[in-house]
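Box S1 | Example of a co-folding query
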Amino acid sequence: MGATITGIGSYLPEKVLTNADLEKMVDTSDEWIVTRTGIKERRICPEDQASSDLGAEAARRAIVDAGIDQSDIDMIVCATITADMIFPSTACIIQHKLGLDNIACFDISAACSGFIYGLEIARNFIDTGRYKRILVVAAECMSRVTDYTDRTTCVLLGDGAVATIVSKTDKNSGILDTYLGASGKYGNLLYVPAGGSRMPASFETVEKRLHYMKMEGSSLFRIAVTAMSESVKKILERNQVSSEQIKLIIPHQANIRIIQSVAKLTDFPMEKVFVNIEKYGNMSAASVGVALDEAVKSERIHNGDLICMVSFGAGLTWAANLIRWDKNG
Ligand code: ACO
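Box S1 (continued) | Returned holo structure for acetyl coenzyme *A
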């Protein structure tokens, strides 16, 4: 028994924040952002929407794509670090928005690696034989934890969501293997200091802008390149797959220079690497999934192709998987 993605959909808010817009907000330039990151624009969620709204819309599209009745879903897993609230889980909120009831729902916090973690969680639940169709959502409103007075972070991030229907398959296809890693000792390189149980919200935390993401970009850059390239090598080696056999590699979209370095270290020509960072920036957990959706819709992936997804994020976490694409299940 195995698990495969039988439906996928994404949702990007309409509002576009361009590099020219950011030039008016902080001391930066389109030239710096494009050459240092590869990003030209990103999407921003309107005030009356939260991660669950983006996630629910992506889920509706994935359900249509899978051609199933939504009552066939028996679990919802939501990867997010920008949950609507501390509790209840965003997965429970999405369940209610979809008009579903009485199925298991929970969130996972693995930052940008959350989508690959979520797919692996779904695969393992399906392997137990008790679940047949799991909705895996990755939904992020990164703009809500971004300090738009801090030029070192605000140029990088955007909002968006992706959803997949992960279904049981009896074929030797779908999610073949996943490698998951994490190292908590690097937690201080990327975090939101306030708003949790360590430093609850107060006038002081708001005044000091402690509800916004803090990041050490250059250390993260180095670790990301190593963690992502090692993850790709590990998943290929242990499945005895060469880079030539991979149709497309889909990396987390944090920085084009990280993507290029990983491609070089793992022997992938850039023609085999999916890149959409210029349109959306880094949408944390949603990035790699939205990239997968666009790769499928633009016919860069067909049934039977071997693909590899790889990511890294706060935690720090990292993850890579190997998928034999098979939407028919
Ligand atoms: N515009 C203009 N100048 C800038 C900007 C900006 N937006 N941001 C930084 N600079 C300046 C810096 O102040 C510095 O100036 P100085 O030399 O006078 O001190 C100079 O540019 C170089 O700064 P670096 O930090 O060394 O630039 P670097 O080439 O490392 O690029 C970046 C910075 C883009 C942040 C890069 O390090 C990176 O992408 N790191 C990884 C970030 C990442 O992936 N984070 C994951 C976050 S999401 C998640 O997991 C939730």
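Residues 217-238 form the longest helix (22 residues). The two ends are 11 Å apart (CA to CA).
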